[in-house]
Amino acid sequence: MKVTIFGTGYVGLVTGTCLAEVGHDVICVDIDVSKVEGLNIGIIPIYEPGLESMVRDNHSAGRLRFSTDGATAIEHGETIFIAVGTPPDEDGSADLQYVLAVANTIGRHLTQSTVIVNKSTVPVGTADKVRATIAAELAIRALDIKFEVVSNPEFLKEGDAVNDCMRPDRIVIGANSDGAVEQLKRLYAPFNRNHDRVVAMDVRSAELTKYAANAMLATKISFMNELANIAERVGADIEHVRKGIGSDPRIGWHFIYPGAGYGGSCFPKDVQALAHTARQYDYEARLLNAVEAVNESQKGHLFELIQRHYGADLSGKTFAMWGLAFKPDTDDMRAAPSRTLLQQLWGAGVEVRAYDPEARHEAERIFGERRELVLCDSAFEALQGADALIVVTEWKQFRSPDFTDLKLALSGKVIFDGRNLYEPTEVERAGISYYGIGRGR
Ligand code: UGA
């Protein structure tokens, strides 16, 4: 089938590539000329395992093209996806200007009956706005072309996006007609083997489903972080508690890891946007507000532990930091807990020697050259002469260090483990003081 995708960010690029991989004829459109030029010669703007080779293979097979020409791409697509960014506005609401700009372009160039699919995470009611925008443009052109706007939210995770897209656990389709559902079912048929993963519903329910999923996951994390703070005070170990509750299938093992707080481009933004939507409908979402507030304060928790150990005056100290990305297997540092901690440490006169397997360039882009940040080429190099090690992201390569070597490299013998990667007794046996999250034994 012929598919057009607006936006070559995470969602657009991964979706377009996976659709091409199963044989569809895909054109991805972006207004960023250099990005499009790069993609056409195989340069991928993001770090995502497995994506680069898939883009190259499908591009050379002629099934995946990149273009800045919206008009031609609109003519091409029987199905047109909108997968552009929805950055947060000052008040926490999602900024729809890019989505509506695409809707406008579609309205100006549409020539045939088409299904338009909202894949960006957008507030409830956005499909109606997209429909109205396209209809207004068609009215100006005095054209009566049939089109439908469908909500088909994306549930992919950074770092595992290709896998999530190729093997979805559900395909949510929100449409107001059976015809549009059938068209998307045909498009997704190659991903829908063994059992039917399509969950069809009305448009508004589909829009809300996306926020519900992310808000539920964020709630689990904030709940565990709150519990970790209680554990710390009452002399319990949250890691035992986690295992004790995760074994209950009603609770489950996923997303109950306490840590330095959730980051990334989705959870913080989506929780706030959903609370904002609720407020617009005269409902104060107290739980969502609390989820976000707990997360904000959790991002400061490692700094509190550091001050608990050293006292308030940290000036002149040097700390090693392992991990900058908001989670492993990505170079993304958006809303990353590392950023909050870096600002707090710098504010206290601390120098940081940081290592991240992928986010070095991103850190250089965000912070530029500065004396108080040394970006190192290896985890070991970051330790040299540092007063303590702070672990912020749970990259696999940080999981089982040789604590004897680590102790030799560190000047001060302290670890602040923001992801509970280590067994406190093992670290302490090596002669290193240990602080974790919620480990108040
Ligand atoms: C999230 C969702 O997991 C995806 O299903 C969704 O499609 C995506 O948002 C989106 O809306 O586009 P993502 O932001 O890539 O995906 O990352 P996650 O793996 O969900 O992690 C989010 C944050 O939660 C990370 O900072 C991670 O460290 C933290 N986290 C996760 C915890 O602190 N504890 C946990 O137990 C799990």
TrEMBL record:
Its EC number is 1.1.1.22. It is an enzyme of class 1 (oxidoreductase). NAD(+) binds at residues 30, 35, 86, 121, 158, 269, 334. Gene3D superfamilies: Cytochrome c1, transmembrane anchor, C-terminal, NAD(P)-binding Rossmann-like Domain. InterPro entries: 6-PGluconate_DH-like_C_sf, NAD(P)-bd_dom_sf, UDP-Glc/GDP-Man, UDP-Glc/GDP-Man_DH_C, UDP-Glc/GDP-Man_DH_C_sf, UDP-Glc/GDP-Man_DH_dimer, UDP-Glc/GDP-Man_DH_N, UDPglc_DH_bac. It catalyses: UDP-alpha-D-glucose + 2 NAD(+) + H2O = UDP-alpha-D-glucuronate + 2 NADH + 3 H(+). Substrate binds at residues 155-158, 210, 255-259, 263, 327. Pathway: Nucleotide-sugar biosynthesis; UDP-alpha-D-glucuronate biosynthesis; UDP-alpha-D-glucuronate from UDP-alpha-D-glucose: step 1/1. Pfam families: UDPG_MGDP_dh (PF00984), UDPG_MGDP_dh_C (PF03720), UDPG_MGDP_dh_N (PF03721). GO terms for biological process: polysaccharide biosynthetic process; UDP-glucuronate biosynthetic process. Residues 320-424 form the UDP-glucose/GDP-mannose dehydrogenase C-terminal domain. GO terms for molecular function: NAD binding; UDP-glucose 6-dehydrogenase activity. The active site is at residue 266. NCBIfam families: NDP-sugDHase. Belongs to the UDP-glucose/GDP-mannose dehydrogenase family. Catalyzes the conversion of UDP-glucose into UDP-glucuronate, one of the precursors of teichuronic acid. This is UDP-glucose 6-dehydrogenase. It comes from Rhodanobacter spathiphylli B39.
